[in-house]
Amino acid sequence: MAINRHQTVKELEALLDEYASWVMDACDELGEISQSDEYLDRRYLTKEHRAANSLVAYWMQRAKMETWQDSVGNIWGRRESKEEGAKSLVFGSHLDTVVNGGKYDGMLGVIAPIALMNLLNELDCELPFHIDIVGFCDEEGTRFGSTLLGSRALSCKWQTEWADLKDEQGITLRQAMDAFGLDFDKVVSATIPRETLLGFVEVHIEQGPVLEQKDLPVGTVSAIAGAKRLQFTVEGMAGHAGTVPMPIRQDALVGTSEMILTAEKCAKEANVLATVGQLNNLPNAVNVIPGKSQFSLDIRSDNDTLRDNCLDAMLMQFKEIAARRALSIDIKQTHAASAVSCSPRIIDQLQAASLTYSISDVDRPFTLISGAGHDAMAMADICDAGMLFVRCEKGISHHPSEAIRAEDVSAALGVLYEFLKDFDYSTDIATTTGS
Ligand SMILES: [Zn+2]
User: Fold this and answer.
1) What is the CATH number of the domain that holds 132?
2) Handedness of CA 7, 10, 13, 14 (dihedral sign)
3) Domain-located, residue 435
């Protein structure tokens, strides 16, 4: 990277702090755009979506970027390279939120790269590749129940059957796109040819406590866990709490309890994450033996084989428990996503940048796994994708008390600056990294 202005380390640190402080202010400002007066709620194809895109485009333009909205509603900015035939390195994350969400989830990954562009402008940096920043329109799936709509449109994963997805008011995705001024049938034009891309980097709050425990401001993500979700219905026989003897009971809730403890044991042994988050008990009365119970299971790992083997072992034991207790069990899988490995090349370069910036754990920068899904999963279908996590307070996310520190944002900007300065763009790295 050509830098026409000499700057000392101290000057650079002062600039990083200045831009980090702008990032914090911008997150506050963007976090005010909400469908609710009481909490943050910003969904796809709403007037708040449009307002967020306008504000982000304004910031991009001030950073001397050309801006446009694509056919699915993502907002884009480009810092154009003068190099002929230049490819693009893309930064970005999502601008939609969950209901009652926090102001950093997603937004940080759009605003921090804009701050980085201001820094490059201040330092008169010319790059031999374009930098694109994208604010994805829908990652959380809050409105239509299907996640990653914005990023999946770029990787040609847009499904025609999504036209009929409905929101809480019964408005279909096609109708909502119409009202927003977009055309469902033209979304395909948002697809990005992989040969134009150098890679994708998503900056995101960690949404977990690992960096805080390690006392690190940032960490490079090695993989995004794949998840499977299942729903179970366990049926026994309801009966009077005072008349049915213990040895002959078919108590669905007691059987379910044993299954939940078995899930925890299997997950711990296999080193995967398993959560039973929903539980229904019927008839749920104080003097009735439970006749039916339903529960969910969410199981995740960065290794699909490990996860699936663990799930098989769990299911076998659930069936044994059901048989021993004379219960029936019905199992339905409702969701399956494969784990995605981040690009080794992006990981190495983010790690090298972290080392230059003196963020290290013993002698190597720290890498961690993302348990949550991210736009980077969809982007990995069309280019080398990587993620940089920023520490968040107590790991709290999807909640108004989501918090980050300005000094950690400054460290993230420093790492991204070093990453860009030494970015190896010479070889074509547009390969699929999904697994
Ligand atoms: Zn997010």
Assistant:
1) 3.40.630.10
2) negative
3) no
Ligand 1 centroid, distance to 135 Cα (angstroms): 11
* 101 CA to centre of ligand 1 in angstroms: 10
Q: How far is the CA of 7 from the centre of ligand 1 (A)?
A: 34
The last residue of a domain, from among 336, 367, 399? 336
Q: How far is the CA of 108 from the centre of ligand 1 (A)?
A: 9
List, for residues 404-434, the tens digit of each pLDDT value: 999 999 999 999 999 999 898 875 544 444 3
| Residue 365 pLDDT > 80 | no
Q: How many domains does the chain have?
A: 2
Report the separation in Å between the CA atom of 244 and the middle of ligand 1, taken as the mean of its atom positions: 50
Q: Are residues 231 and 213 in the same domain?
A: no
Distance 27 CA to ligand 1 centre (A): 14
Give the pLDDT score at 425.
Answer: 81
What are the pLDDT digits (tens) for 214-273? Answer: 999 999 999 999 999 999 999 999 999 999 999 999 999 999 999 999 999 999 999 999
Query: Do 366 and 251 share a structural domain?
Result: no
What pLDDT shows up at residue 433?
A: 41
User: Cβ distance 299 to 226 under 8 Å?
Assistant: no
Ligand 1 center from residue 204 Cα (angstroms): 7
User: Cα of 324 to ligand 1 centre, how many Å?
Assistant: 43
Separation of CA 398 and ligand 1 centre (Å): 8
Looking at the structure, tell me whether residues 189 and 274 fall in a common domain: no
Percentage of the chain modeled with pLDDT above 70? 95
